Automatic annotation (TrEMBL):
Residues 64-210 form the Peptidase M16 N-terminal domain. Keywords: Transit peptide. This is Ubiquinol-cytochrome c reductase core protein 1. It comes from Equus asinus asinus. Residues 216-281, 337-392 form the Peptidase M16 C-terminal domain.
C-alpha cells in the first residue's frame, strides 16, 4: 500500500500539471509516454488511476485499521505486528518464530484442530510468516466471510493456548527445520550477511534463532514474549479486496478493542539502534588462499560453500579465522533520492574465513551495501529495479533476468557462475535514522 500511495501521488501530480496547462489528462501525454516502445508505461500510468484509496483509522487502544476496497468477490485480511528477531535478546532469540509455529495449533476458544476445521469450512487460506522486524497472520477468503476471518485472526493473536504437548512437538519440528535450512545455501549465506552487516546489533540475529535457544525456550518464556510485544499500538489490521472500511472498523472494534495498549513502567521494550558495520566475510573452496588487508568503500561481502554453517565441525579443509570488523566513522545518509548518496571514505577491512571444504565444488557469495529503509521513497525505485533485473539460475534452465542484460548466461558460460540476482531488504531504522537496509 505504501508503494501504491507513492506512485499514485506522483501520477496525480502529473495530471494536475496537465489540467493547469489546458492539455488533456490522458490523451496528451508527453512524447516519451506516447512512444510505441514505451506503450506499456502509458498503460501502467492509466492503471494507477484505478488503484483504490487506502483508508486508515485508529482505535482507542492504538491499533490501526487500514483497507483498500475493490469490486473483487474475495479479500485478504491480516494482522501485522511490529515484532521479530530485532526485538529479541540473545537469550530469547527465536521466541517469535516459535510462537508463530504454535499459533495454528489451537486457541483457548478453539482447542486442537478445531481452528483448522473452521478455516476449512469457509474455504479460506490461513497463513503466517515472521521476519526480523514484523510478524504477520493473514487469511484469504470470500468477501462475505470477512467477519469470520477477522474473528479467527483475533482469536489467534489473543488466545494462543501454548499447550505443553504442542510446545514439545513444535520444538522438534523447528529443530528439524534448522537442519534443513543448513542445507539451503541461500538461506545460510543471507543469515551470515545480516550477521556481518549488523554485527553486535539485534539485526544480526536470525529469525529462527539458534538451536540452543529452541531447546531451552519454555512456556513461561513464550507467554512473557506475547504479553510484552503483542500490544495494540504495534498492530495493524489490514484488508484488501471486496471489503468496506466501515465494516472492517466495526469488526476491529468488536474483536480487537480489548487488546492492551499500555505497558508497565519496567516492561516498556526499547528498540536498540542498529548500525551497518560494512565488514567483509568470506567462505572459500579450493586451494588455500593468501588473504591480506584491502581497501573497501563500505560494502559487506559474505560467501558460503556447501556444508554446515557451523565452522567448528572439523570437515575436510575446514578453518576459522578471527573476526575482523570495522565500523564506518560516518555512516551513509539519504535525503530522499539515490543521487544524494555520499561517497564513503575507504576503510581497512580484513577477510574472514568461516568455513571451507576443498571437496565441495561451489561457493555461494552475497554482497550488500547500505541502502534506504522502508520509509524512504527510494524503496519504491529499488523494488522496481529488483523486478527488472530479476535473477538467473542455470539449474532451472534460466530465470527472470532481463533479456537485454543477458549477464546470467554470459557469466555461466565464461566465468562459471551458476546463478545471480538482486535482492533488496529494507529495515525500519539504522542508528538514529528512520531508514536503512541492505
Amino acid at each position: 500500500m505504501a508503494a501504491s500511495a507513492v506512485c499514485r501521488a506522483a501520477c496525480c501530480g502529473t495530471l494536475a500539471a496537465g489540467r493547469g496547462s489546458g492539455t488533456g489528462v490522458l490523451l496528451r501525454q508527453p512524447a516519451l509516454l506516447r512512444s510505441p516502445a514505451l506503450r506499456g508505461t502509458a498503460t501502467f500510468a492509466q492503471a494507477l488511476q484505478s488503484v483504490p484509496e487506502t483508508q486508515v483509522s485508529l482505535l482507542d487502544n492504538g491499533l490501526r485499521v487500514a483497507s483498500e476496497q475493490s469490486s473483487q468477490p474475495t479479500c485478504t485480511v491480516g494482522v501485522w505486528i511490529d515484532v521479530g528477531s530485532r526485538y529479541e535478546t540473545e537469550k530469547n532469540n527465536g521466541a517469535g518464530y516459535f510462537v508463530e509455529h504454535l499459533a495454528f495449533k489451537g486457541t483457548k476458544n478453539r482447542p486442537g484442530n478445531a481452528l483448522e476445521k473452521e478455516v476449512e469450512s469457509i474455504g479460506a487460506h490461513l497463513n503466517a510468516y515472521s521476519t526480523r522486524e514484523h510478524t504477520a497472520y493473514y487469511i484469504k477468503a470470500l468477501s462475505k466471510d470477512l467477519p469470520k476471518a477477522v474473528e479467527l485472526l483475533a482469536d489467534i493473536v489473543q488466545n494462543c493456548s501454548l499447550e505443553d504437548s504442542q510446545i514439545e512437538k513444535e520444538r522438534d519440528v523447528i529443530l528439524q527445520e534448522l537442519q534443513e535450512n543448513d542445507a539451503s545455501m541461500r538461506d545460510v549465506v543471507f543469515d551470515y550477511l545480516h550477521a556481518t552487516a549488523f554485527q553486535g546489533t539485534p539485526l544480526a540475529q536470525a529469525v529462527e534463532g539458534p538451536s540452543e535457544n529452541v531447546r531451552k525456550l519454555s512456556r513461561a518464556d513464550l507467554t512473557e514474549y506475547l504479553s510484552r510485544h503483542y500490544k495494540a499500538p504495534r498492530m495493524v489490521l489490514a484488508a484488501a479486496g471486496g471489503v468496506e472500511h466501515r465494516q472492517l472498523l466495526d469488526l476491529a472494534q468488536k474483536h480487537f478493542s480489548s487488546i492492551s495498549g499500555t505497558y508497565t513502567e519496567d516492561a516498556v521494550p526499547t528498540l536498540a539502534p542498529c548500525r551497518f558495520t560494512g565488514s567483509e566475510v568470506g567462505h572459500l573452496v579450493g586451494r588455500a588462499t593468501t588473504l591480506s588487508q584491502g581497501l573497501w568503500e563500505d560494502p559487506c561481502m559474505c560467501g558460503y560453500p556447501h556444508g554446515s554453517r557451523d565452522a567448528s565441525g572439523g570437515g575436510k579443509g575446514a578453518s576459522q579465522a578471527h573476526v575482523h570488523a570495522h565500523t564506518p566513522p560516518t555512516p551513509g545518509t539519504f535525503s530522499g533520492h539515490l543521487g544524494s548518496l555520499p561517497v564513503p571514505q575507504p576503510h581497512h577491512v580484513l577477510f574472514q574465513i568461516r568455513h571451507r571444504d576443498d571437496a565441495l565444488p561451489l561457493a555461494h557469495v552475497a554482497i550488500a551495501v547500505e541502502g534506504p529503509g522502508w520509509a524512504n521513497p527510494d524503496n519504491v525505485a529499488l523494488q522496481v529495479a529488483n523486478a527488472i533485473i530479476g535473477h538467473y539460475d542455470c539449474t532451472y534452465g534460466g530465470g527472470t533476468v532481463s533479456t537485454r542484460a543477458r549477464h546470467g548466461t554470459l557469466a555461466s558460460r565464461k566465468r562459471g557462475c551458476w546463478g545471480c540476482g538482486l535482492l533488496y531488504c529494507g529495515v525500519q531504522s539504522v542508528g538514529h535514522r528512520q531508514e536503512g537496509g541492505c
